[in-house]
Amino acid sequence: METTEIEVRTGGHEVVRDLTGDCEEFLSSVGAADGLLNVWVPHATAGIAVIETGAGSDDDLLAALHDLLPADDRWRHKHGSKGHGRDHVLPALVPPSTTVPVVGGRLALGTWQSICLVDTNVDNHTRKVRLSYLS
Length: 135
Hints:
By secondary structure, this protein is an alpha+beta fold. The chain has three helices and eight strands, in the order ββαββααββββ. The longest helix is centred in the middle third of the chain and has 12 residues, at 57-68. Belongs to the UPF0047 family.
């Protein structure tokens, strides 16, 4: 198994950040052939999604999360910015990991699929993401 950890700067706003290029670069650096890539975010307030980006789907995902998990005072988890408790519920809806097949050294994603970090926590501006390739 080959593994690395990358740092992703998310800034002070909610974000869907495309990690596909980072994943492809990692696979190239380890000389990947056929196997599996696991993408893991070791944080209690972020997740990994496989979605289309660039055509509005990333913004639609954030809007849907706002509808499901409003940033208001209803949450019992109270520390941090207003509504931060919702960020701790996010990984139940957007899991902290995904595994993608690798075929011939390339991600076996569909035409419009991208691997994305989903982060609604405006209090944490930097995230770590673990990439692990198993052949």
